[in-house]
Amino acid sequence: MSPVNDSKSEPAVFLLTGIPGLEDIHLWISIPFCLIYLTSILGNSVILFITKTDPNLHEPMYIFLSMLAVTDLGLSISTMPTTLGIFWFNSREISLDACFAQLFFINSLTFIESSILMSMAFDRFVAICNPLRYASILTPPRIAKMGLVSLLRGVVLVLPFPVLLKQHQYCQVNALSQSYCLHQGVMRLACSDIRVNIIYGFFITVSSVGLDLLLILVSYVMILKTVLSLASRTECLKALNTCVSHLCAVLLFYIPGISLSAIYRFRKSSPLVQNFLGNLYLLIPPLMNPIVYSVKTKPIRARIMRVFVN
Question: What is the CATH number of the domain that holds 147?
Answer without folding.
Answer: 1.20.1070.10
